[in-house]
Prior knowledge:
- The radius of gyration is 20 Å and the shape is globular.
- It has helices at about 40-45, 70-85, 95-105, 145-155, 165-170, 175-185, 190-195, 200, 210-235, 250-255, 255-265, 280-290, and strands spanning about 1-5, 10-15, 25-30, 60-65, 90-95, 110-115, 120-125, 130, 245-250, 270-275.
- α1 (about 40-45) packs parallel to α2 and α3 crosses α12.
- The chain has a domain at about 1-100 and about 280-290: Nucleotidyltransferase, domain 5 (2-Layer Sandwich), CATH 3.30.420.
- It is α/β, with parallel strands linked by helices.
- Residues about 205-210 have low confidence and may be disordered.
Amino acid sequence: MVLLTDGGSTKCDWILLDSQGSVVLKTRTIGLNPAVVHQNELSKRVLDNSDLQPYYSLVTRLDFYGAGCGTEKPSLLLKGVLQKIFPKAVVDVQEDTIAAVYSATTLPGIVCILGTGSNSSYFDGTKVHPSVVSLGYSLMDEASGNYFGKRLLRDYFYNKMPAVLKTEFARRFDLTPDVIKYNVYKQDNPNMYLASFAEFIFNPGASRPKNAIEINGYFYKLISEGINKFIECRVLCFKEAQSVPIHFIGSIAYFSEDIIRDCMQPYHLTLGTIIRRPIDGLIEYYKDHILE
Length: 292
């Protein structure tokens, strides 16, 4: 049996396939980003999922594609954790951009991830080429969930958020400074915590006709500034940017399609597909190319 995992910082989708490519199991765990989650917690998050338990000794191949797996040390850490849990499996751990490419295209293109974190790579039709090394949520991750979460928090405390949104933001979240600092600086998964605030952009719950223009203008500016930074840092770094389609993966991209399209026009870029969850495309790729 082959176990596929598309792992973000917030959640991981697990798909178990039999030798014919039929889906035996679909399940989900909390995110397994080995760059920010300790070894014991990584193991606990997998072991806590009761759906996977009957298959520990039946999995012969485990391909994990995840956030935080683009450098050697964290990927080896996670590989060791998974190997202990699935002792008969050949375990392979690669960064999430590989799965994004497999789910989005079989032709040359640039594939971008906008989820809890952000990343990009160029696919030449055969090989995946990363952009720059990612330094994670505190230094990079433009246009990601944690990027927008940080921006919302700053705008709230700097009084740059429209008043009606500020009231609703305070009602929705615990904005006690000590609570925020504790979660960001003392707890595991600060990137996931910050990204949790980004949901407010797409579900503000406070829009009224007289405020709609101001609110929509605020969010449009917020998102477009992040998208433009991402394009400048993570798309234009590829010399092929203006000759191949640009594909996007992840919830942030899915809910920002119109703004992404607007932001791409001045750079003469071509928008490709936008996929909210790449796991289904990954299944089809394995059926067509791996399990045949």
